[in-house]
Design brief:
The chain has about 350 residues and is mainly α. Helix content is about 90%, strand content about 0%. It folds into 2 domains: about 180 residues, no CATH class; about 170 residues, Orthogonal Bundle (Helix Hairpins), CATH 1.10.287. It contains 7 helices and no strands. Helix 1 runs antiparallel to helix 4, helix 3 crosses helix 4 and helix 4 runs antiparallel to helix 6.
């Protein structure tokens, strides 16, 4: 709480107390006027008026003394504050504080002694002279004492209220900080849950991809491409065998040509009757073997074309499967981040089955 608010509160309380005092004084004046109207003609009343004037003069003198003492106290407080600001924690200040406390105690004692002695003497005189007026004055004194006690109690309650307000302000500040911390912890917990869910999902996806990769490797080993490679190796072996056979046939043909030439050179000798038949058989065998060679070469070309087409189809299928897998992974990730919930194992196994079906 600011000092201005405290000053305003003190002002309001002082105004309220002043109003109460004015009301009490007005009531007292009304009662006095009523008493004056009733007993204006009596000598006792004149004596009472004189006594009241004496008492009022005494009260005024006491008020003047109190006012002077208050001024002295204010001066001493101002000097004390100035000394505290200028020379804090020095021996001179401590001595001055002690002297000030002693003077305040002496002044209070003097006030109480003076007030008690003067008031007691005057009240004793008044009690002897006019007991009714003594009763009224005693009531007024009691009202003033109760007023003083109420003021002290009010100041004490104001201090307690200010303390409670300060504690309440601290508590509200702490509660506000607590709520902010709670909100931050909730946000952090949500982020942790999201990150854990993403980690869990990505680990499952990694396991699925590893499993699919192993299956892809196994399927690649048993795929048509491997079969085509085996066929190609077979064709290569057959080609080598057919090449050897062709070379053997060419060697045989050359040998036969040499024999024919040697037979033609030998005029005296008659050619055998079955030589022509053997030559025809060899020529027909050579033509058949050349036809087989041409057929095998054509089959080799055809298989090479088929092999290239299968390779292209395999590459296209692999790209399509990879694209579909990436699309499925991105859609699953977007769904996962939008839902903000942990993916179940059933979803992971279903995606695994779909991927395996697509690969197969």
């Amino acid at each position: 709480m600011d000092q201005n608010e405290l000053i305003e509160q003190y002002r309001t309380t002082l105004e309220v107390m002043k109003e109460k005092l004015t009301n009490l004084y007005e009531d007292k004046e009304k009662q006095a006027q009523e008493i004056l109207e009733k007993k204006s003609a009596s000598l006792e009343f004149q004596k009472l008026e004189q006594n009241l004037e004496i008492l009022q003069e005494g009260v005024q003198s006491l008020n003047l003394e109190i006012f002077k003492e208050k001024g002295n106290l204010r001066k001493l407080k101002a000097d004390n504050e100035w000394g505290e600001e200028k020379l804090m924690n020095t021996e001179e200040i401590l001595l001055l504080k002690r002297e000030l406390d002693e003077t305040i105690q002496k002044n209070n004692e003097l006030k109480t002694d003076k007030n008690m002695t003067n008031n007691e003497s005057k009240l004793a005189q008044l009690e002897q002279s006019n007991p009714k007026l003594f009763g009224l004055v005693k009531k007024i004194i009691m009202v003033e004492e109760t007023n003083f006690l109420l003021k002290e109690e009010l100041s004490f309650l104001e201090q307690e209220r200010n303390k409670i307000r300060a504690e309440y302000y601290k508590i509200t500040q702490c509660l506000g900080q607590k709520e902010k911390l709670k909100l931050k912890t909730r946000e952090v917990e949500k982020e942790i849950e999201r990150s854990e869910a993403n980690i869990y999902y990505m680990s499952n996806r990694l396991e699925d991809l590893a499993y699919d990769l192993e299956r892809e490797k196994e399927s690649f080993k048993i795929s048509e491409v491997n079969h085509l490679f085996e066929k190609l190796e077979e064709l290569k072996q057959r080609k080598q065998e057919s090449g050897k056979k062709v070379s053997d046939l060419f060697d045989q043909v050359e040998a036969f040509d040499i024999e024919i030439d040697s037979e033609r050179k030998c005029e005296n000798k008659m050619p055998p009757t079955n030589l022509k038949q053997e030559i025809k058989n060899l020529e027909s065998e050579i033509t058949e073997r050349t036809k087989e060679l041409k057929q095998k070469q054509a089959e080799k070309k055809r298989l090479r074309i088929v092999f290239e087409q299968k390779l292209k189809e395999f590459a296209m299928n692999k790209k399509a499967r990879l694209r579909s897998a990436v699309d499925m992974q991105s859609t699953n990730l977007s769904k996962h981040t939008l839902s903000k919930s942990t993916p179940s194992l059933a979803v992971a196994h279903s995606t695994k089955r779909l991927m395996s079906k697509g690969l197969i």
